[in-house]
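Encode chain A's predicted structure.
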Amino acid sequence: MSAHTVEKIGGSSMSKVEQVLDNILLGDREGDAMYQRVIVVSAYGGMTDLLLEHKKSGDAGVYALFSEGESEWLWSDALTRVGERMCEKNAEIFDDDVYRQAADQFIRERIEGARSCLMDLQRLCSYGHFQLEQHLITVREMLAAVGEAHSAYNTTLLLKQRGVNARFMDMTGWREDATLPLDEKIRSAFADVDFSRELPIVPGYVKCEEGLVKLYDRGYTEITMSRVAVISAAREAIIHKEYHLSSADPKVVGAEKVTPIGRTNYDVADQLSNLGMEAIHPRAAKGLRQNGIPLRVKNTFEPDHAGTLIDSVYRSERPCVEIVAGMRNLIAVEVFDQDMVGMAAAYDTEILGLIDRFRIPVVTKDVNANSITHYVAGSLKKVKRLTRFIEERYPSAMITVKKVAMVCAIGSDLDVPGLLAHCAQELARAEVNILSIHQNMRAVDIQFVIDEGDYERAICALHHCVIEKIEEPADIAKLVRVA
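Encoded structure for chain A:
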């Protein structure tokens, strides 16, 4: 195992450039202490939304306008605005004209190169032998790469300006002919890196045969971090976030009420990923876990705090709830058919196939003798298209679609007699209507499906009863006695 760490900085943190320099990249480090690290950076906050589409609202970015076949001036104007915004960011960052001009020249070349490529592709696909749909994933990858390269190049310039031997590791594939598998691409790029004397700055996107955007959509940065850590045999992987990995979302419960978890395991991290609250992408966690590399989640703005360490072996000394989390926007798709009796497995296989066809993530499901309910995290538009296909396949079925939410109690060991009943009782006291409950024998999470409007009240109620009221979370007796 090497002495170096591989550290990923998220987009929200990257946008606060001075804090990132002071708290992560430089701090009070001097000389050799500046090195033995690899830094993987996301695009600045909001840039990927402008290049692709807004992650939450769905508002069209350059990719969405181009893929929808909008007129050339619409997507081209959007691309121009991205370039202008990136140059505005450069002006915020660099007070030295020489460095700012270098940053502007770099991004203008990428923006104009992308524009020329898209215009050529659009003209090519005006002929019947070439279909735009066949090239869209490549377009998406190219545009995503622009945002990642922008922040990585700027970070390298900033560090060089301060006397650090930083090295821009451009693996985005810009103007490259060959396309290698991901691991081979990383291995080749790092073959001559001296971690003791250089500080590699890596864009979160890597062009490779597998297609990171195709496989992981916008979760590719953590995949890059994970594979760099595995291939370079890093001592530890670190993710710098805007907040600690805490006992609940501080925006919902209140920053003064939550506490950093401190220690947990990859099993808990997987449960959080399932809820869309990724401590780390599950495929990224797999590589770290299989190679015995621990992951540390740190708060960018509290550099002296140890953060939360995640590994494969941790289990709380005594059973307890470590985190209360949830998912606000879920859709329940219930298929009821009395002909399903004795054939639930066949129904489920076919319905799951349709759900997978529409690339709609399934969070959990209920099955009984004649009904199956899948709780999915997708747009209502996609779900309505899905239900039309299910109706065609099962014309005798009754299909119900309902917007819901989910709240969960999660921990590395929840084997506490009476915990489920205790949590349900607290939700009832908070006047939260429970639509469905899920608890399995692994004792790592309890899921409550609730009405969408009860989400915040439910999170606060659960956190209050299993975290805030417990002076020592490991004290089982207190946990089950709290009234």
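The CA atoms of residues 433 and 450 lie 6 Å apart.
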